[in-house]
Amino acid sequence: MKISEIRQLTDEELRTELERLRRHLFDLRSQAVTEKLEDSSMLTKAKRDIARILTARREREQAAGQAARSGVAANGTET
Asked: Which residues, at least 6 apart from 40, have a Cβ–Cβ distance to it below 8 Å?
């Protein structure tokens, strides 16, 4: 999944996709332990997708925080 695709998702979709990927990573790790995993690069891909989603969520949090701070600065008063 590309970061541009991730950025288009809503917060709820990001949360469900993150849960799905974490479950998938758990399954892949289980397969690796039981030696049934055919493609070990899938572990890395799943980890990177999880990291991309977490990065997108963090970017949104920071953008919301900056918007709140600039709203305070524009008013000249704190709430």
From this structure: 32
- Quick one: which of 43, 46, 45, 42 has its CA closest to 18? 46
pTM above 0.90, yes or no: no
Write out pLDDT tens, residues 1-55.
899 999 999 999 999 999 999 999 999 999 999 999 999 999 999 999 999 999 9
Look up tokens 């030696």; give the residue.
35
Nearest-angstrom CA–CA distance, 19 and 47: 12
Domains belonging to the chain, first-starting first, are 3-70 (1.10.287.310)
CA distance 36 to 52: 27
